[in-house]
Amino acid sequence: MTAVAATPPVRRRAPRRLQQAAVLLLAAITIGIPLWLVAVTSAKPQAEAIRPNLAPPHQVQVAENYQQTFDQGKMVQGFVNSLLVVAPSVVLVLLLGAGAAWVFARRKGRLAGTLYALSISGLLLPPAVITIVMELRQLGLAGTQLGMIAVYTGMYLSTSIFFMTGFIRHLPEELEEAARMDGAGPARVFFQVVLPLLRPVIATATIMVMLFAWSDIFYAFFVLGGGDKATLPLNLYQVASAQLYLNNWHLIFAYVVMMSLPMVAVFVIAQRRIVAGITSGAVK
Question: Are residues 35 and 98 in the same domain?
């Protein structure tokens, strides 16, 4: 009796490889081409960069372009202004978001559910910039860094509450009860028990808020208006519109590259924590 050879299982490697190739091609078109355009244009002399294109530079002029941009584009002042606005906003979003999320995650009832829905409604409803500017003027905060911090905090607080509430709901309440039995009050329970457990989602919220606020120009334009308090994106807009870089696309793109480097570094270093925080906070 002859043995019949078992047929190998059908493997669908070809469709998977095609899907992966399609995803890589789509990423190369939507992300790679704009990045390449910015990079090569920032390395060209002015004669080649008048009409930006994807062709590599015939004459590489990297050091001169970036040095001129750094000197004339107020990079140091813009970096300090952005840092003074973004850093406090991130801290406030994390602390206020974690505190509100802890309450929403532990409280039950219609009132808590209604307040939670209102708190995360900012994910869907865009802020009304005219109303924001009018309120800041009434409070005397228009054109100030404190007003910009308040705007960023209010804008991104919904995102922080959304991720952190889903994460806290799956933390064991026994840890908090044990701390209360040891005599810890609500503040001590929050800062010593709950907050350390939120490290993954805190990392995600930190990076997301930093990326959004660092590159914002729309709200910064209406709130700060420019001047000595201009952030990096607003400073780029001002120097470009003031004809400092008129038709000098090589300098504009060099400014964009230098402005984006801090956030690119942060994203590359913490990209794994972004995925971990999103899956643990939103999917759970």
Answer: no
In a domain, 5, yes or no: no
How deeply is 282 buried, as exposed, middle or buried, from its count of CB atoms within 10 A (0-12, 13-18, 19+)? middle
pLDDT in tens, 152-198: 998 899 989 988 998 888 888 888 888 888 888 888 989 888 888 88
Q: Taking a C-beta distance cutoff of 8 angstroms, is the pair 273, 202 a contact?
A: no
197-223 tens-digit pLDDT: 888 888 888 888 888 889 888 888 888
Contact 154, 121 (CB under 8 A): no
* pTM of the predicted protein model: 0.80
| Residue 136, token pair as written in the block | 């800041």
Determine the structural domain holding residue 271 and report its residue range: 69-283
Q: Residue 4: left (phi > 0), alpha (psi -120 to 50), or beta?
A: beta
